[in-house]
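Input record (one chain):
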Amino acid sequence: MEKSRKFLSLGVFLVCAFILTGSAWAAFPKPQGFVNDFANVLDRRSQSELEILAEQLKKDQGIELAVVTVATTEPMDPKEYTTGLFNDWKIGGPEDSGLLLLLAVAERAIEVEPGYGLEGVLPDGLIGAVIDQEGMPHFKEGNYGAGLTAMAKAYASILAGEEFEIAEENKPDFGWLFSFLIFLLIVLLLRRNRFYPPRGSGGIGGGGGSGRRTIFIPGPTIGGPRMPTGRPSGGFGGFGGGRSGGGGAGRRF
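The corresponding structure, as predicted from the sequence alone:
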């Protein structure tokens, strides 16, 4: 009798776990197009502009842009929900050239996540700068459509090879790092000269040469991003198998 009760309890536990797990996976809605306003917060003009932009991006570069609004991401946090939705919908096609813009109304959160194929063109810092400069001023005023449209246009310009000018307050300050590297280089040279004095005409053992050394200080490499290639297509026919590694950036407003 006791064994039967144990088996019954275990069976109930497994059924509950299965139901809860199934509910978690079923939390993601099905895509309705490139623009999915599940929270009903986009005005008609913004939705139309976003759809045209996404279709053109798909046609010209094979990049799949998905714009999503949800009332809430519970029980997940916005970032976890964004990554899960990206991979559930498989945004980006076989080249992983996908970009997801997700707005969560209750959490007052905006998340942007690129597929593997766009991480080199859209690094996290640049994604965050676009959010700060193009989206946040609108989101703080409740103009969700205007914010998402401005961000989408900025990302499309970057993907087309145009330069995005980052405001001074959003630029990372590497001055301290450069100063530290110079200091470290000087210390290493002084230590080296202490144990290995330069050879010259007046040095011990004689020898030719002036004892001068050329020091090369590495600087930043300048180069433009490689643009992904893709097959153009018209309209929304479903997303095509893209993946994301969880990169990108997000903000709360």
